[in-house]
Design a protein that fits this description.
The protein is α/β, with parallel strands linked by helices. About 35% of the residues lie in helices and about 30% in strands. It has two domains: about 1-215, Rossmann fold (3-Layer(aba) Sandwich); about 225-280, 2-Layer Sandwich (Alpha-Beta Plaits), CATH 3.30.70. α5 links the parallel β7 (about 150-155) and β8 (about 180-185). The protein is globular, with a radius of gyration of 23 Å. Bound molecules: adenosine-5'-triphosphate (ATP). Adenosine-5'-triphosphate binds near residues 11, 16 and 41. Adenosine-5'-triphosphate (ATP) binds near residues 16, 37 and 38. This is ATP-binding cassette domain-containing protein.
Length: about 300
């Protein structure tokens, strides 16, 4: 179990992380989200034991996290930090041995992962000869080569195409099934939503949203109704509790302030002749994120 207890990190006068607390248990996939500069990487560095919190503590299985835990942790950092002049095989031997692995075991695992990521032919290629996406796969493999019990992934999906994103998600899920703890950051909130159960959203180092994703959505209250059919937009807009009506090319989205308003919208819809679709859904994580921290965000 990983416990972040009241962790605070100052860089001079700047409060990068402000009294943050959360727990990750075996089998949890935990999303640490936030705008640029919100404090995610600083939190990861504290979790890895690379930075000592100014206040508070980080406990791994009940003890202060530190270098002695390195063999059980896998870390994929945001910046590409691969040694580019050596081959994939040499790089993995280097990283694996830093984690006390035997060369034979490293090479066996490397073969398995190269196959799984469909890059078998790159084993003896220099890192600099690989495309950006393939370098990212190698970076991911270097984080999981030691079969970690705690996997820390800073922006693992950035720049990946949808097929490779899905591949990364599958591997992360496999680690979850084996009982690993996974904590990751991402700006692609639709991905976060599809496979992460628990989230914290940071703003200037403070948690502004936290908890199980389903509960976060219930607490947010606002919902969306998707309609395909002949409706009068003005009549929809006039219903009390309707925040906004958006006309897309093929459907109408009615944004309502709470679940109760759906009944009034439905009462109106019953009076319309041609309705092909009427769906009520909870707000997306992206909408919740923008509502909570979007006033200061230019682009998420
Ligand atoms: N070594 C450092 N010295 C001084 N300030 C730092 C240092 N590292 C980070 N900061 C500052 O701390 C704050 C949090 O930075 P951090 O890198 O943790 O954010 P982040 O959420 O990971 O951002 P991004 O999404 O852009 O990667 C920022 O204001 C940043 O400028």
């Amino acid at each position: 179990m990983l416990e972040v207890k009241n962790a605070r990190m100052l860089y001079g006068d700047l409060v990068a992380v402000d009294r943050l607390s959360f727990i990750i248990k075996p089998g949890d996939i935990f999303g640490l989200l936030g705008t640029n500069g919100a404090g995610k990487t600083t939190t990861f560095r504290m979790i890895m034991g690379l930075l000592d919190p100014t206040e508070g503590e980080i406990l791994y299985n009940g003890e202060k996290v530190g270098y002695h835990n390195v063999n059980e942790i896998g870390y994929m950092i945001e910046e590409r930090s691969l040694l580019t002049k050596i081959t994939v095989k040499e790089l993995m031997l280097y990283f694996g041995q830093l984690k006390d692995m035997e060369p034979k075991a490293i090479l066996e695992r490397l073969d398995y992962w190269l196959e799984r990521f469909d890059i078998v032919d790159y084993k003896d290629k220099k890192i600099k000869e690989l495309s950006k996406g393939n370098q990212q796969k190698i970076q991911f493999i270097s984080a999981i080569i030691n079969n970690p019990k705690l996997l820390v992934l800073d922006e693992p999906f950035s720049g990946l195409d949808p097929i490779n994103t899905e591949l990364f998600v599958e591997v992360i899920r496999d680690f979850q099934k084996q009982g690993a703890m996974v904590v990751f950051s991402s700006h692609q909130l639709d991905h976060v939503e599809s496979f992460c159960e628990e989230v914290i959203v940071l703003e200037k180092g403070k948690a502004v949203i936290e908890g199980r994703l389903d509960q976060v959505k219930i607490d947010f209250k606002k919902q969306n109704i998707r309609i395909i059919g002949d409706v009068d937009i003005k009549k929809l807009e006039a219903i009390p509790g309707v925040d906004r009506v958006i006309e897309n090319s093929n459907e109408i989205i009615v944004k309502i302030e709470s679940e109760l308003v759906a009944k009034h919208v439905f009462d109106y819809i019953k009076t319309c002749d041609h309705i092909m679709k009427y769906d009520v859904e909870q707000a997306s994580l992206s909408e919740i994120f923008i509502a909570k921290v979007g006033h200061k965000v230019e682009k998420v």
